[in-house]
């Protein structure tokens, strides 16, 4: 039956983060004690008022199809959020589509703008699924490797070096998974001017927009006049509201691009779940104190983990500016590569982490630790990892 499998899937890899999550579950089911610091699933419960809204929708029988664009009141809430956060005005009737997850929002955005043979610039290290989604759309991902030595700074010079006549789009993520960086104004200005000069679409994944520290502030490329009419902005509810299992996100952008996004949505998943969208309305319009509490906890986790990891001989570790990840450099510890280090840590420390190589060029020599677990889990996992690494000769 091999000849019946689509040839394009030959170059598609499994999601490294999902594969590691499966590995952690398998080890636990076999009786092995492991601590999973590989996943990006907040340990917090979804806020009660969000659950209540979805439960109320179920109780009233609100379980049928909605518009493929999403519930009008949820689109209006998203428009309010965009206006308040980024001073960007999007028409909720025509310029916002609610999706089943931010991940799907990225996918429909890429499908809407890419043709076979197009190229997409992706600053790396970057989330594991961007490149694979580009390939599924029949296009070619082109990595723009960033350097740990200068803090993974993005510049126009780096983008120009990878530009070809086939370049169609740029995928951005800030705050950034896996490095924890928040893009600065000069970097976003470079992106805005570069994309305008070369008539490129910008797909901006802003799923971690609420999780920033130390006075850093998230900015969207859509805030820049050169980018407003060429940016598709993606975000969602999983990280800020601990709604990973709900699968709810959205994409916004100029009407012409959003018409194409809507076509992909209509002919794939159709729409996000009706009662789930009611929960999304409650999340955006209700009490925001649970979000602040989660961010405060993540701040504590990154401070504690950063201090502990920097005490390990040979490890270099930047303090994350956002997200709930930390990305230590383990290249001086003697492992052949980051995958070998990750495998060794499972066996020797009982800790599951993600190898930096999973995030593309620029990621090798690092491992990613997720700090989204409970405080007890984060401290136990980082302590066990630090102990075994400190014992290396």
From TrEMBL:
Q: Which Pfam families match?
A: Aminotran_1_2
CDD domains named among the record's database cross-references: AAT_like
Q: What is its EC number?
A: 2.6.1.-
UniProt GO molecular function: transaminase activity
Instruction: Tell me which domain of life the UniProt entry assigns to the organism this sequence originates from.
Output: Bacteria
Q: Which UniProt keywords apply?
A: Aminotransferase, Pyridoxal phosphate, Transferase
The record's InterPro entries line, in alphabetical order, gives: Aminotransferase_I/II_large, AspAT/PAT-like, NHTrfase_class1_PyrdxlP-BS, PyrdxlP-dep_Trfase, PyrdxlP-dep_Trfase_major, PyrdxlP-dep_Trfase_small
Instruction: Please give the cofactor(s) recorded in the UniProt entry for this protein.
Output: pyridoxal 5'-phosphate
Q: Which PANTHER family match?
A: ASPARTATE AMINOTRANSFERASE
The similarity comment for this entry is: Belongs to the class-I pyridoxal-phosphate-dependent aminotransferase family.
Specify the protein name: Aminotransferase
Organism, as annotated: Streptomyces coacervatus
Q: What is the lineage of its organism?
A: Bacteria, Bacillati, Actinomycetota, Actinomycetes, Kitasatosporales
